[in-house]
Amino acid sequence: MTRGYRILVCCGTAGATATVLVDKLENKLRELGLELDRIDKIQIGNLQSMVSGGDYDIVVTAVDIQTNELSLSVPVVRAMGILTGLNEEEDLQRIVEILKKTKTK
Fold this sequence. Notes:
This protein is of the alpha/beta class. It has helices spanning 16-31, 47-54, 80-84, 88-103; strands at residues 5-11, 36-43, 58-61, 76-78. The chain is built from 4 helices and 4 strands, in the order βαβαββαα. The protein is globular and about 30 Å long.
């Protein structure tokens, strides 16, 4: 049995913004027919350690992350459009494309 996708949402404090992003992301991805195993949220300061031990498919963030300063083993997508509604479809499309690629590896 294949597992659903595992997504890590990263924001400054993992508070209100992360909660809204998790809710919207979960609803949109389920509407698109994607099976989700879990969506976790974390503050940016704990990103490196959480990705290292968490078996995630993607990190979705509402903040800029200097990925060149971190050695993350998963793709990172900044998805402000999901929060604001501006360019929401483009953000969702990028996330879906990345998730689908993880299943073909």
